[in-house]
Amino acid sequence: MDVTRTVGLDRNDVIAAAKSIYSLVLLLLLWEFVAQYDMVHSYFLPPLSDVLATFYELTADGTMLEHAYLTFRRAMAGLLLACLLGIVVGVLAARNRIMGWFWDPIIEVGYPVPVIALVPVFMFWFGTGDLSKIMLVAVGCFWPVAINARNATREVDENLVWSARMMGTSDRRLLRRVVVPAAAPGIISGVQIALPIALIVTFVFEMVAGGGGLGHLEIQGVRSFESAQVYASLIAIMIVGFTLDRGLRYLRGRLLVWT
Amino acid sequence: MSYADFRLETVAETIPNPFRRVVRFVFEWIPIAIVAGLWELASGTIVSSEILPPPSAVFAVSWELLVSGRLLPHLQVSLYRIGVGLGLSIVVGVALGVGMARVKPIENFFEVFLALIYPVPKAALVPLAILWLGVGTETAILIVFLACLLPIVLNSYNAARNVDRNLIWSARMMGMPAWKLPIKVVVPATIPSILTGIRQAIPIAFIALVSAELIASNRGVGFEILRHGQIGNYTSMFAVLVVISGTAFVAVRGYEWLERRVVTWT
């Protein structure tokens, strides 16, 4: 009796899935084997089973969740702030001549600044707590959001605007009901570009300045020679990155039902 | 709209031709001057000049750091790290991208790893790199390499997938052996996309570099920013920041200029 049929899977699906993950399984087995027999010092590569045990331990006693929550809160608060400001600035810069004149060169100069280099500056300005992290995430995410919002708004079909105006739509309403919805796919792309920046800034800031969070947990592992903790934090970071990426994609699908 | 009068073109038309470009340039960059002016005024009055050093002082120190050559060794180290990391990621990324696109077993083998590292911010791998390579140049190179790898792999993969079949058929017809195809046909047809991938990778390389240098280095521009901040030398901290931003800006613009010069066939 074919087991696969009972779960509604085609045999070919199973073969394809096996083909695409066999290398990972092989690598994980090799990792466990090499580390278990001490071919590599456990400081560099603790056995996979140890890493998973540490991950489970840290998750079970709530440490991991607490740190993940800190990271998540900082990254999301900063990203949200950047979205609010970036979308307003981007849309207005595209629709209003004075705003465009003022913001275009500022965006041009501000975008290429490697924001991560501002970590010491923000530590100095806002301390090492949540505020400095959230502010720097907001600054880093502002540029891609603003640029994408501006470009998407510029590319909105003028016929849409003219038609709406012909039918007597007011300026304010035009922006909210016609321009922003038409530019929404591009605006959301900007937010998707900003998401990894939010995470990078949060992790690096936590590593340099401390104050809890997954980045802090990970660097702490290095400093106390607890390699398993470094790997376990990385698993958590992977999960957080993956969840946020998928979440944003899901949100995009829900927000852009008409596309 | 009532802003109809406020048009660059209408202003510019009243000015004789040779000056137009200059006037346009000045007009376009006035906002930067406004921001810098406000900053200059605010520093020392509203905010202490410790916290927000005036731009004039910051630029003076940047200039002095560059001319006196005190920053040059650090800049050199950082550029070396970026160069090696980015260079490696181009070589490996193109080979991997083209290989995955043309050979199914290669794709089956590597796809899952790329899917796994895709959502991880590469800067989060710095502690792991410290475990393996210690604090210093190798760690920075590894992080730059990993950060730049994905955009280059993705761009070359997509392009190699979509190489015009007629090109391949023609080459085969004219008797080219199969093993020569990747080098003679696929990679050349993929070059514009590879160059796009590299352009996307350059700013990422700078972010990765500075992250690695902030966390795990005792040389390089990222480390210099942190060091000046820690000893309270804030004007110098801002000055190094200006230098690294300027370098990133020049790198991206220089690359775009070079790309336009070199890729003339598209």
From TrEMBL, chain A:
Q: How does it sit in the membrane?
A: Multi-pass membrane protein
Matching Gene3D superfamilies, A to Z? MetI-like (1.10.3720.10)
GO terms for CC?
plasma membrane
Record-annotated membrane-spanning stretches: 21-40, 75-94, 106-128, 134-153, 174-205, 225-244
Q: Could you tell me the Gene Ontology terms of the biological process aspect for this record?
A: transmembrane transport
- Which locations, inside or outside the cell, does it occupy? Cell membrane
Residues in ABC transmembrane type-1 domain copies: 68-252
Say if the entry is tagged with keyword Transmembrane helix.
yes
Which keywords are on file for this protein? Answer: Cell membrane, Membrane, Transmembrane, Transmembrane helix, Transport
The main place the protein resides is membrane
Does Cell membrane show up as a keyword for this record?
A: yes
**Protein family:** Belongs to the binding-protein-dependent transport system permease family.
Query: What's the name of the protein?
Result: Binding-protein-dependent transporters inner membrane component
- The protein's organism comes out as Natrialba taiwanensis DSM 12281
UniProtKB/TrEMBL annotation, chain B:
Give one Pfam family.
Answer: BPD_transp_1
Q: Which GO terms describe its biological process?
A: transmembrane transport
Q: How does it sit in the membrane?
A: Multi-pass membrane protein
- PANTHER family of this UniProt entry? ABC TRANSPORTER PERMEASE PROTEIN MJ0413-RELATED (PTHR30151:SF0), ALKANE SULFONATE ABC TRANSPORTER-RELATED, MEMBRANE SUBUNIT (PTHR30151)
Listed A to Z, the keywords are: Cell membrane, Membrane, Transmembrane, Transmembrane helix, Transport
Q: Where is the ABC transmembrane type-1 domain?
A: 75-253
**Organism for this UniProt entry:** Natrialba taiwanensis DSM 12281
What this protein is called in its record is Binding-protein-dependent transporters inner membrane component
Q: Which InterPro entries match?
A: MetI-like (IPR000515), MetI-like_sf (IPR035906)
**Gene Ontology cellular component list:** plasma membrane
| Source taxon at top rank | Archaea
Q: What is its main location?
A: membrane
Q: Where in the cell is it found?
A: Cell membrane
The transmembrane segments are 21-39, 79-100, 112-134, 140-160, 181-211, 231-252
Family stated for the protein in its record:
Belongs to the binding-protein-dependent transport system permease family.
Sorted alphabetically, which PROSITE patterns does this protein's record hold? ABC_TM1
